[in-house]
Every structure is written in C-alpha cells, then in structure tokens.
Specification:
The chain folds into two domains: 165 residues, 3-Layer(aba) Sandwich (Creatine Amidinohydrolase, Chain A, domain 1); 267 residues, Creatine Amidinohydrolase (Alpha-Beta Complex), CATH 3.90.230.10. Helix 5 packs across helix 6, helix 8 runs antiparallel to helix 9 and helix 10 packs antiparallel against helix 11. Helices cover 37% and strands 18% of the residues. By secondary structure, it is an alpha+beta fold. It is globular, with a radius of gyration of 25 Å. It has a six-stranded mixed sheet with strand order 6-5-4-1-7-8, with helices on both faces. The protein has a three-stranded antiparallel sheet with strand order 9-12-13. It has a three-stranded antiparallel sheet with strand order 10-11-14. A hairpin with a 2-residue loop joins strand 12 and strand 13. Bound molecules: glycine and manganese (II) ion (MN) (2 copies).
Length: 454
C-alpha cells in the first residue's frame, strides 16, 4: 500500500480473523470438495442506490469468509490438487487515476500479501486464464442463481473451455457451493466468537443508549439516530435497518419506517444490531415509553419473557434446533389462555396452532456473517441437533392486532418481542446480549436511572 495513504483505524492485518484462519478455511473447503473439483466464489458487486449514488459496499459473506478481501470485482478460484492445492484471486489492479477518485485498492500484490492467496491476477484477464484452470476438473462448486452477471460469465467460461486447443474437457457437474461452505460457516471458530462478542457489546451499548433517550414525544427516527450514532462511534455499521416501533407499529413484524412520535402509555419495540467486520448481532427489546409498564403490558410482557427463558433453556448441545421454538410456543399458548386471549384447552390451542394468530413467526435463526445466517435447519427431514459453536437467536413475540375485534380492547395494538443471541457451548450456552436488561423490573430501574441522569 502507498505509504502516504492514511491507514484505516483497524488495518486488514490487525483484523480479528487471521490470514492463517482464512487459509485454513480454504484448505478445508478444498479437502471436502475433492482433488478433481474446482470452486469459484465471486465478490459482491457494488450496488447502486439511485443514479450514480452507490450503497455502502458490503462484501459477499461467502467470499469474505474465504478471503477477507474487502473490494468488489473479484473472483476466488480454489483449485484442489493431488500435490498442491492452489487458491487464486482475480482482482482489481492498482490504478492511481481511479484510486484518486475512489480510494486505495489492494491490487494483485497487496491481495497476495493481505489475504494469503497463492497467486493473484488482474480481473481483466480472467476470461483468458480461468477456463484453462478448469480444464479436466470433474466438478465445479459455485454460487448460481444469485448474480445474473456471474451466471452469464460462468457459461461464457465453459464455452471458452470447450473451444480450447481442440476442445477442452468441460466439468460434468456444477454443484452448489453452499452445500459444503454453509455447513462450515455454521460452526463459529474461537476468533469468530470473540468478534461476535465484540459486535454484541457494541449493539448492547446502542440499545442501552436508545432506551435512555426514549421519552413520550420523541420521534422513532430520533431513537434510530441514537442507535446508529452509538454503532458508528464504535466503528460499526448497522447489520440491518433498525426497527423502532412505538405502540401499534410493533405489530408490523418488519416495521422500519420509524416515522411516528412515541406516545405516553405505549410500549416501544426496538429490533437493531450492529455489524463488525461483517459479523452481525440481532437484539430486540420492548419497554415502556414513559418508563413504567401498565398492568396489562406487564402481564403480556412476562408471558414473552418466560417463553424466552424456556426457549433459551433448550439451547444445549444435543438438543434439536426446533426445541427452543416448541418450548416458547407452549409457554405463550398457556399464557394467552390464562389472559383469556385464547380459548380452549392448551392441547387444542397447540393442536390447531391457534396461537399463531398472536405469535406468527419462529423463535430464532442461525446468526453469523448474515443476520439470517446460512446452514440447514433440518437434515434428511429431521430437525438439526445443536452443537458447540452454533449461534442462534431466541426471539419469541406476541402481537395483538389493533383491529382484532375478537379480543378485549385493552390488549389491542400491543406488540412485544424479546430477542437475544445465544452461543451453544460445550456445556450449555453463552448469551452474548445479556447486558441489555430484559426483566420488566430491571428495565424500569434502568429507565428510571437514565431519567434521573438526564
Ligand atoms: N432483525 C431480524 C430478525 O430478528 O430476524
Ligand atoms: Mn432475529
Ligand atoms: Mn431482530
């Protein structure tokens, strides 16, 4: 890199995932693919927001997992071999003119040095070089159906390969890269877990700050601004658009308009999480705008909290992934029956799934580089067993539609979700996001302290 370029506060080399770990991942993937295979992984394109205004660049998660390379316009070719396995990166060359406009690039030499790949070539040369590298390989693993431009290029490389010196041997099978790679991504390494802890700590700070600035009359977007301020002040970005949903807005599961003013007597549901070095956190808290739950809000809140506790109990090695949801469903069904929001026996509520009227989503998902991370939830039709290193969210919720004429008006328009991020460990769990208060009493105490300090 040019010595005169200002280094980022965290340089690539100082990042949490070491060059050696990226190399280990590539080797493991090549071993699984077999020596007669090739694997191709493309970087994410730079996406435009409108006209010539780009979205902030976010690397493709698979590509990041295997390289740590942070730029667009790159393709990683993994070429397992009998004697030597090779990883080759096609990427942008240094270009002083372009760098003057858009900032520094690693270039081919920088990519070899930074990412530890065996070789790097200019991306402009890929059509000439890559088909020959694929010749004679039986299988190609790649992502298809994701980026139409990459799919088209892949077909063009096969045409070129066929046209090589008297007809090259085109690979017979094209397989989904995710089949091998996504199972690897499901198991977080020690370095990934410490990065996820760091990301969780940033997100915890953001949630606590957002809770502290909440008052009747404040706009949802002002609370959103506080979340983003705290994330950015710690060098993170938002992993997804925060949902800051006051009152009835919380009944819209993916609400993110964040335009309303918060009202005295309402609850506020915040679903927000930071992203640090491409790893995500996903937290939801629901708390009273004025600092104190009403009796009805508290009754419903405690049902969701108890459901979450029961679900977290089920996150253990050897337990099926689905056990947390089943535990949450049972507690919520029972709670809604006790509060007379549902009629009939517990058995009938569970059998006919009438609880879905108020709890319409699942209790969690894998978490990692993607918020809804990759990895199969079922294997051969059976729920997957949890193993150490897997990270899940646990996020039961209850949402009573404002226009539901069949429930007592006092419940209408209340939406509650509590979401934490949980690592399956050898002997149980580690809750990464514990430091945002969850118990109703602890929430009220924290809000009251914050108001005193204001
Ligand atoms: N924040 C998205 C989710 O909870 O799944
Ligand atoms: Mn979630
Ligand atoms: Mn969430």
């Amino acid at each position: 890199m040019d010595a005169k370029v200002n280094p980022p506060a965290r340089k690539m080399k100082g990042q949490s995932i070491s060059r050696a770990e990226y190399a280990r991942r590539r080797r493991q993937l090549m071993r699984m693919a077999g020596e007669d295979a090739a694997l191709l992984v493309a970087s994410a394109p730079q996406r435009m927001r409108n006209a010539d205004a780009a979205w902030p660049y976010r690397q493709d998660s698979d590509f990041h997992y295997l390289t740590g390379y942070p730029e667009p316009e790159a393709v990683l070719a993994l070429l397992p071999g009998r004697s030597v396995a090779e990883s080759v990166l096609f990427c942008r060359e240094r270009d002083p003119q372009r760098e003057r406009m858009d900032g520094p690039r690693l270039g081919t030499e920088g990519a070899v040095e930074t990412c530890g790949v065996d070789d790097a070539f200019p991306i402009e040369d890929i059509d000439d070089i890559l088909p020959g590298m694929l010749e004679g390989r039986a299988r190609v693993y790649c992502q298809f159906g994701q980026e139409p431009e990459f799919d088209a290029r892949l077909l063009a490389w096969m045409r070129r390969l066929r046209a090589l010196r008297g007809g090259g041997v085109v690979p017979k099978d094209f397989l989904s890269l995710g089949y091998l790679l996504h199972d690897m991504r499901l198991f977080k390494s020690r370095a990934e877990l410490s990065l996820m802890r760091r990301c969780a700590a940033v997100s915890v700070n953001a949630h606590r700050a957002a809770m502290a600035c909440t008052r009747p009359g404040v706009a949802e977007f002002e609370v959103e601004a506080e979340l983003l301020r705290v994330m950015r002040a710690q060098g993170a970005v938002s992993a997804y658009m925060p949902s800051v949903a006051g009152g009835v807005n919380a009944c819209t599961m993916h609400y993110n308009a964040n335009q309303s003013r918060l009202r005295d007597g309402d609850l506020l549901l915040i679903d927000a999480g930071a992203e640090v070095e491409c790893y995500a956190t996903d937290i939801t808290r629901t708390f009273p705008v004025n600092g104190r739950f009403t009796r009805d809000q508290r009754a419903l809140y405690d049902v969701v909290l108890t459901a979450q506790q029961a679900a977290i109990e089920q996150v253990r090695p050897g337990q099926p992934f689905s056990a947390a949801h089943e535990a949450a469903v049972e507690v919520i069904a029972e709670g809604l029956k006790t509060l007379k929001l549902l009629n009939g026996s517990l058995a009938s509520i569970l059998a006919n799934a009438s609880y879905k009227r108020f709890f319409p989503h699942k209790t969690g998902h894998w978490l990692g580089l993607d918020v809804h991370d990759v990895g199969d939830y079922r294997i051969d039709g059976e729920p997957r067993m949890l193993e150490p290193g897997m990270v899940v969210t646990v996020e039961p919720g209850v949402y009573i539609p404002a226009d539901d004429q069949d429930v007592d008006p006092r419940w209408r328009g209340i939406g509650i979700r509590i979401e934490d991020d949980v690592v399956t460990t050898r002997d149980g769990v580690e809750v990464l996001t514990d430091a945002v208060p969850r118990e109703a009493g602890a929430i009220e105490d924290m809000l009251s302290e914050a108001r005193k300090g204001a």
